Each structure stands twice: as structure tokens, then as C-alpha cells.
Amino acid sequence: MFRSPLLPALAFCVAALAMGGPAQAQWWNPGPKPLPGNAPGSPQAPAEPAAYDVPLYYKAGSATVTAIFNEDFAKPDRMHDEFLATGKRSTHGLFVVESLQYAWDNQFDTPEIGPMERTLAQWAKASPDSRLRRLVEAIKWQRQAWVARGGGYASSVPGEAMSVFRDRLARATKALDSAGPEGKASPIWYWVALIVAGSSGQPASAFDALYEEAAGRFPSYHTIHYTRMNYLLPQWGGSFDAVDDFVRKVVERTRESEGEAFYAWLYVDVARKTDGDLFKVTRASWPRMKKGFEDMVARYPDAWNRNLFATFACRARDKETTARLLTELGAAARLGQGSPGYTTESCRRFAFEPA
Description:
Blueprint: H1 13-18, H2 54-69, H3 74-86, H4 97-107, H5 114-126, H6 131-149, H7 159-183, H8 187-199, H9 204-217, H10 222-230, H11 240-258, H12 261-272, H13 278-281, H14 286-299, H15 303-315, H16 319-329, H17 344-352
Helix pairs in contact: 2-3, 2-4, 4-6, 6-7, 6-8, 7-8, 8-9, 8-10, 10-12, 11-12, 12-14, 14-15, 15-16, 16-17
């Protein structure tokens, strides 16, 4: 089955939220009001957390959508701009501003967006200069283009659906252009632009030039790399040799700040979009992916990443590493992210039961 290049981590949002975590408060996400006599800043009063855990990461994105429905039109821009200016990252290593693109992309993954269109019109009227609103407009048209096209091979898509697909991609391009230089200060602009460029079949030279510009400005922004890599996959006319070459180049580009982590991050993304055994079908190397996970959890030791590491150790049939990670995780073990057929229970049996 053909796989669209628009496969973000939204499928994991429910799992992320289910992992839970302590209540945290921010200006955009106020906690319970302090009890009488508890002055702001006291131990009993809500305080800005030092880090954003995985549930809070996803909550940040959804909060911008909720704000628009509540006609709080200034809040999403303030959140976007603060996340962008501070470079805030979650405890699993993703930039918090990325959660906004996921949340808005999800809003348009349906054939009927009439209510949302009316809400966006209100937003445009209230905040005509909003940078985020222009980016959301571009997100809307690229996602709606793929809703019209569907996920089948081009040969299976009716001509009129392809016509709608192309028209909506053109509208996404227009929205990106309207965002101007200010829009390009956000990695979300480049994420949409790369999707549109790849989906429109732009020449490789132009596509690569856009990617190099994006990666030069935002070298550790995950979905910029994921999106360019999508179009190197075999289902898009590429090859796993081309994918592996790309992965290695990204690791070199990001090694100073991320170590080998992007080797693991990128091959996890390949695994989500590839049928069969990752280590047989693709050029993924488990020893190098293991090193990538080690660097990832050293920098971002969230249970999310440690569970992901354990899941892929289980997939690679690395009994020793699977057992060690399951022991370290204990009751926090939640294996199976993006890996049908692998669960905490099945990996425990693999790791601890006699062969």
C-alpha cells in the first residue's frame, strides 16, 4: 500500500497522554488557583516547569486550537513566538513549536472543515497580521490536498481528484508566499513548503535547495528531515540506499549537538512507513541505531525515549539490551510505539523466558 508523505507522530498522541505525568502549570495552561495566603512563587503556587514532558508537549499544540475556538486569538501567536524564541524542547527531544503543526494538521484531516473555516475567518478578521494564522492556512491546504487525493498510488487516483490535489497544493503555495520573510522565520513554514514541493514533483535540485535552506536554519528540527527523507523512500521512486545516505548526512550535520541520535530518530520514522523487518528490508544497522538511542536517552532520558529504545531492541532481537531496558523501566514500561506485533508482554517473554 502506498504511504503518504504526511505521516506525523499524531498516532502516538493518545499513547503519550496515557503515560500521564505530574500536573504542571504555565501562563497558557494555568493550574489550580493557589489557596488563600499562598503568594505567587510560594511552594504551593503553580510555577513554570523546568521541562515539558510528552503529554504537556501535545497539550501545548492542542491549546492553540482550543484558544481559537474560544476566540482568544492572541494566545496562539504568543505561544508560537515564545516557543520559537526560546527553542523550548520537550523531555523527549522534540521542539515544542512542532506540537503546534501536528495539532493544526490534525484539524484538517477530514473532508468537511466548514466549522473550522468559519473559525479561521474570525481569526483573520481579529488578527490580520498573525504569522501563525498564515502558517495554519498553508497547513490547511496541504492537508486538504492529501485528503482529496487519498493515499493510493497515483495510477489509482481518479483524474478529478488529482486535479483537486494540484489546486489545493497551489493554494498552499500561495499561503506560504503570503507569509513572507516573517513566515520563514518559523520551521513550520519550511515543513509545509517541503511537503508541497515534494508533492508537486518539483525537480530534485529545487527540492534539495529548499531542504538545505531549511536544515541550515533549523538543523535539529525533526520533521524537516523526515519530510525530505519521505521522498527518498521506494514508494516515491527512491531507494533504501538513498535513504541510508541521507540518514548518515543528517547525523553528520547534527552530531555536535545530538550525537548519533538522529540515526535512531530517522530510522524510527522509516520503520513507521515501511512494511516488513526494518533490519532486513532497509539498510538500517542495529549497532549504529543502538548507539543513536544511547545518545538520545543520554540527552533526553524521558521514559518515552527509553520505551522506544526497548521496543526497537526487541525488534532487532537484541535480548540483552531488551532485558536491561525493561528492568530499568520497571512499571513505566510501555513498549510497542509504532511497532505492531510488539508489546510490553511479548518483549518481556522474548527477553526473560528461556528460548
